[in-house]
Amino acid sequence: MNVKSETVANAKNAASSGGSEGRENLLGRSVPELEKLFHALGEKPYRGKQVGEWMYARGATAFDSMTNLPAALRAKLNEEFGIGVLRERSRRETPDRKTRKVGYEIPGGGIVESVYMSTPSRHTFCLSSQHGCAFACRFCATGRMGRGRNLTAAEIVEQAFRLRGELPPGRSEYNIVMMGMGEPLENYEAVVDALTLLSDPSGMAVPPKRITISTVGLAPQIVRLADQGLRFRLAVSLHAATDAQRSKLMPVNQRFPLEQLLRAIRHHVERTGRRVTFEYILLEELNDSVADAARLVRLVAQLPCKINLIPYNPIGPGKFKRPSPERIERFAEYLRPRVPAVTVRYSQGVEIGAACGQLAGETET
What we know:
The protein has helices at 11-14, 31-40, 46-57, 71-80, 141-145, 153-164, 188-199, 219-227, 243-249, 258-272, 290-300, 325-335; strands spanning 4-6, 24-25, 81-82, 87-93, 99-105, 111-118, 123-126, 130-133, 146-150, 175-178, 211-215, 233-237, 276-282, 305-311, 342-344. By secondary structure, the chain is α/β, with parallel strands linked by helices. The protein has two domains: 19-82, DNA polymerase, domain 1; 87-352, TIM Barrel (Alpha-Beta Barrel), CATH 3.20.20.70. The strands form three sheets. It has an eleven-stranded mixed β-sheet with strand order 1-4-5-6-7-10-11-12-13-14-15. Strands 2-3 form a two-stranded parallel ribbon. Strands 8-9 form a two-stranded antiparallel ribbon. Strand 10, helix 7 and strand 11 form a beta-alpha-beta unit. The longest helix is centred in the last third of the chain and has 15 residues, at 258-272. It is elongated, with a radius of gyration of 21 Å. The two termini are 25 Å apart. 47% of the residues are buried.
């Protein structure tokens, strides 16, 4: 299959990199923070609100476009500040452009990847929270990178800001899933700060019900999310229904085994009133039998939940294989009358390395 590939940022996206070396980044600051900044600069605080509206509501990538600011102030902002720090270094798109994977260079070096996905009814942005990942899930390309660094809240916000510029004319609604590179709950403060700004009506105004945080199962942070009253949706990477099996696939299970994880999830459901989504990657002859399905039912059927079955996406040489369509359907059919909701999610963008488990900053050398 032909795949469109670019290695140089296009003009639209290059603008928001800001060329801001040595300048302070304003993208990622809340409106109250911008108001305080402008007051400290000797300007009226409402100028900060105006700048926030231009960035978050209108998608402005340059101060010169902020025409309700005095020319002298726009010149000062151009000298001292920038809008964004990420530089687009790679782009791969499916021929129909419904899936687009963008690689951004982050300050200090390294590439993080974000994915734009579209269907006739919805648009979804898959954002990264870390450069690399320390949790080494056996089926995940990011886990092979090892630990990199946490992204800042501003770097997370900027990914959504940049992908929003890809929406077709007349479309403004989109979903955000924290399912890119890294473990979001290990970078807890930055992720929560970013999602708070993304969902703020004076920020990018994404309803919390359209935002999902995915985790490998960091039980204490799941409890913390619930206790803070955060209303974002929760998705948990489960992938096995016994501790022995899950520990082989996901070493994190040795720290937070299923009993502790399920206790945290029940607490989250009770506190938030939201159902949880369980992600379950189907691996041929490893976790895809009817017996595996029966164990999964016993584990989660009493919870208000949705199970997303994800046929394995290849990440290079290894022992894992995607099950046959017949095995996938048999597993799903066993679950459907026994758990609240089941979907089989064939990931978009497999052919460009943009699907679940495939992100790995592939442009790095």
